Amino acid sequence: MQQEYPRLGFIGAGNMAGSLIAGLVADGVDPTLIEVSDVNKAALDNLKERHRVSTHEDNLQVAAVADVLILAVKPQRLKTVISEMAPSLRARRPLIISIAAGMTSDTLARWIGGNPAIVRTMPNTPAMVQCGATGLFARVGVTDQQRSTAESILRAVGLTVWVDQEMTLDAVTALSGSGPAYFFLLMEAMEDAGVALGLERHTARLLAQQTALGAGRMAIESEDPPKELRRKVTSPGGTTEQAIARFEAGGFAPLVDQALKAAAARAKELSQQLGD
Ligand SMILES: NC(=O)c1ccc[n+]([C@@H]2O[C@H](COP(=O)([O-])OP(=O)(O)OC[C@H]3O[C@@H](n4cnc5c(N)ncnc54)[C@H](OP(=O)(O)O)[C@@H]3O)[C@@H](O)[C@H]2O)c1
């Protein structure tokens, strides 16, 4: 017998919830199985109009029906949001999926009470174009079926990877969570350098954007690791070799290493502050 698709509840109808819902509906999930609540009526109306999901201004109405509850409000709002729903969550025991940055599953479990099933995730902004990358961590007590449900929801907006230790999500935050900004920074610098070399700004931007897209697709579609792809486009005595030598002389790889370590340390610090 085919298993019924679970009823999904979203608390928060902002950017990330909107991206996930768009991905799920595009994947063929029936929008009548999606319930969303938010304090912002305009955000709810927008989602209802775009995807025909059911909307509510009271979080409790969503908590009362959801089999899977996706917490998609800012981390600072979570304590209030959970406090009002906690009795219902303890009684109904839905799978809880948190996308809130930095909020540990221990803190969420403490606020909810009764040892809830929680999957904590760290998505990134390209989820908005269904090209995201999400790290997932399952707390003790999450069943295989619940893991697979959580994975299928996040896969609607891109790649998913599981981590065994919750603290590894700080590394995911440093790499893919903050990562889109690193690529934007490189694109920005390449655009400026192209302008300095005589290109029109619009042309330099288009070339930098398309090159980033092309390199990303090649890296994903090729069997070769990035190092080998780089070797293949670096002819001895050629132009790329000159540029790479300058990057290396400027300490590019150690700089990236330091940048990610700083991001991971900040993620840990923010997590501790949120839990206090
Ligand atoms: N955006 C990202 O790149 C990204 C990446 C990884 C993780 N995340 C996480 O995803 C979560 C959502 O981020 P977002 O960018 O989607 O935020 P967002 O666009 O601000 O959406 C949050 C929504 O929640 C609403 N809200 C506030 N208080 C509420 C309450 N008590 N009950 C119900 N709804 C309430 C907000 O309404 P108002 O606008 O009226 O306050 C807003 O519509 C955050 O926890 C963030 O850490 C985001």
CATH architectural arrangement of the largest domain? 3-Layer(aba) Sandwich
Report the major sheet. 8 strands, mixed
N/C terminus separation = 46 Å
The percentage helix is 55-70%
Contiguous uncertain segments of 5+ residues = none
Form type: elongated
Notes on the structure:
The chain is of the alpha/beta class and 276 residues long. The protein folds into 2 domains: 8-172, 3-Layer(aba) Sandwich (Rossmann fold), CATH 3.40.50.720; 177-269, ProC C-terminal domain-like (ProC C-terminal domain-like fold). The chain is built from 12 helices and 8 strands. The chain has helices at residues 15-26, 41-51, 59-63, 78-92, 105-112, 144-155, 169-177, 179-196, 201-221, 226-232, 239-249, 252-275; strands spanning 8-11, 34-37, 54-56, 68-71, 95-98, 118-122, 132-138, 158-162. It has an 8-stranded mixed beta sheet with strand order 3-2-1-4-5-6-7-8, with helices on both faces. The longest helix is centred in the C-terminal third of the chain and has 24 residues, at 252-275. The radius of gyration is 21 Å and the shape is elongated. The relative contact order is 0.09. The model has no long low-confidence stretch (mean pLDDT 95). The site of NADP nicotinamide-adenine-dinucleotide phosphate (NAP) has 27 residues, from helix 1 and helix 4.
